[in-house]
Amino acid sequence: MGRVTGAALAGMLGAADTSQPAYRWLFETLRSLIANGRILHGSVLPSEREVVARLGLSRTTISRAYAELRDSGYASSRQGSGTVAQIPGGPVAGGAEPLPLGGFGPMPGSTALDLTCAAPNAPTGMLGEFQAALEQLPRYAATMGYYPLGLEPLRLALADYYTRKGLPTGPDQIIVTSGALSSVAAAGRAVMGRGQSVLAESPTYPNSLLALKAHGARTAAVPIGPDGSDMEQIASALHTVSPTVMLCLPDFHNPVGTLLDDARRERWAAELDRAGTVGIIDETCAELWLDTEPDVLPMAAFSKNLVTVGSASKSHWGGLRLGWIRTPRHLSGAIARSRMSMDLGAPVLEQLVLANLLNAGTSLAQSAREGLRDNRDWMIAELQRLLPEWKPNRPAGGLSLWCQLPQPRSSALARQLKSVLLAPGSTFAVEGHGLEHYLRLPFAQDRADLEQALPAIAEAWHKVAA
Fold first, then answer.
1. pLDDT above 50: residue 315
2. Domains of the chain
3. In terms of CB atoms within 10 Å, which of 10, 142, 317, 348 comes out highest?
4. Is the dihedral angle over the CA atoms 390, 393, 397, 398 positive or is it negative?
């Protein structure tokens, strides 16, 4: 059971909102911190005396705020432990991305740490965003609620987002989906027939490939190096394979982490046009920069034949379950029909939440960006200490490290571990095998979990390597 110190709590609370009673501000801020995972379920809150000393509030104020937490189900009192933070009903199992590992996260009752997932938790304030969207909901509750292409406010917000990034876009070019995978599937079905080829860099994000293979696509691979996409090899593969579609990840490639400059984006777009191949550009990680915001154009700025897919899952929260397609106008009708063959629209409330966030200029929260950057640097330093023979990259963005191992034993390491779930390199291979010299290690998880996982990984590696 973790314990939140008074100093840590003071830092998380920030400045008090003097427009409301102090107990109410403290209660609502604490509830938000617990609901958004900043204070973890089961953590012991500081004693009332410690909070009084740190915040300078009265004992009566602290007592009332803690009582409100207990009454609302966000805390409980335990003999000998004090006040313990809790999620009403307890955290729900699962919630990780489904990688093809033969399962979907830990089995029920398992205490294994899941490092197969690279996604951040909901940022502080997400609860408030839903409450604000609820006030807008009555306008839409008077209708049947079907918006197959997306709500107009969200399509406008996404069009403005791309236009600001240097890719002029109208709302008629935006199609809202239930996630990036739905976007990839809809785009693929619209432009390729069963049995036609899709080219992808290897390694790649496996679920996007699965979305196209489920439609009957045949796959072909071109390698990506540690410095990013190799334009000469891509040009050669396009000429040899003549694929109908190519999956492209120019922005903090998952899992390699590389970012392409404008020159290589322009070259890639030109090679796709020359081959008559439709590029599906996955921008899921585009906003996940950690050091300096990239000064690059969206790849679709270099060709009118590229389909762009995006998602709110990494930049905002996976629980929103929203993605989108930015389509060229000559493909918009075909992709819209394909999308409507899958379902009749994404949830209205979540669309309102995302539209408000985009209109406010909100992408990855600054606190989340700083936390990810700190975790990345800490993990690299810990790997150098525990496993100096490993060679992790240092990505300028994204959510994970791509580690080169001294021996091709990635799958053996994943099998050896019982307390940690890992995605070996072969998970990301287009062919489904190989890449045994590599391992993806997400750093988006809570630091306490990572501090527990890395020594276990090091211990298992020494057994496997021996």
1. yes
2. 6-85 (1.10.10.10), 113-120+365-465 (3.90.1150.10), 128-359 (3.40.640.10)
3. 317
4. negative
